[in-house]
Amino acid sequence: MGGSKARAGGGRHGPGAGSGGTAAPTRRDRRNKGTDRMITTRLCALLLSATLALPGAALASGSSDSGASAVVQVAQVSREAVRQAVLAEAERIREARPGRIWCVPFARAVSGINIRGDAATWWKGAGKTYPKGQVPVSGAVLTFRSTGGMPRGHVAVVSEVLSPRQIRVDQANWVTNRITVDTVVIDISEANDWSAVRVGNQSNSFGKVYPTYGFIYKPHESS
Question: Which residue intervals define the domain Peptidase C51 in the entry (predicted)?
Fold first, then answer.
C-alpha cells in the first residue's frame, strides 16, 4: 500500500533450498532476465516522459513522515512563471521598504508554499501538506540545514533544472539584503540525493559545501 513495493521471498535462498532445490539459471534465462530489465527501464522512462508532458506536472520520489517511500505527482512551474513571481515580490518589497529582506517570506511568496518559521524548520514544517523529496523540480523549494555560520538555515526556489545534479535558484538574503536570481547550485552528495550542495557565486566559482534536506514541493492540483 502507499506506493511502496515489497521484495518477494523475504530471504536468501541457496542451492537446495525448499523441496527440490533451485536450478542454476541457463544462458537463455540470464539473457531473458536482462531483456526484462531493459523493457522495464524503457517503460519507466516512457511513463516519466508522459507525466512530464502534462502541463504543470512532475513526478517526485519522496518519503512521508513515517519514512515510507512513494512516487507523488507535484506541481511543476515554468521558469517564466517563477520569474514573474520574483518580479512581483521584488516590487512588493520595494514598495514596502522593509528594513531587511529575508529568504523565508521571499520563498513563500514565489513558490506558493505556505510554511511558517525559520528556514531550518521548513522540512519538518511541511508535514503532510507538502510532499518532500530528493528530486529537483522547478518551483520547488531547496531547503538548507542549520549550520554554525547559518544557524537559521536557508530556503531557495528552483527556477530551472539544468540536469539531475545541477539547478538554478532564485533566492533572497544569500547575498545580504539582496534578491539574487539564476544562481547555479550543484549536488555534490555521494548518494546523488541533494543532501550536500555547493552554491555558485559572483566570480563564477562554487563556495563551500552546505548540508541540505532536499526539496519541498507544491502538490499538483489533481493530487
Answer: 78-198
Evaluate whether residue 177 is within a structural domain.
yes
Torsion sign (Cα): 177, 110, 82, 220: positive
- Is residue 167 one of the residues assigned to a domain? yes
Residue 141 belongs to domain with CATH number: 3.90.1720.10
In a domain? residue 133? yes
Residue 211 lies in a domain: yes
- How many folded domains does the chain comprise? 1
pLDDT digits (tens, 9 = 90+) for 36-62: 444 333 333 333 333 333 345 455 555
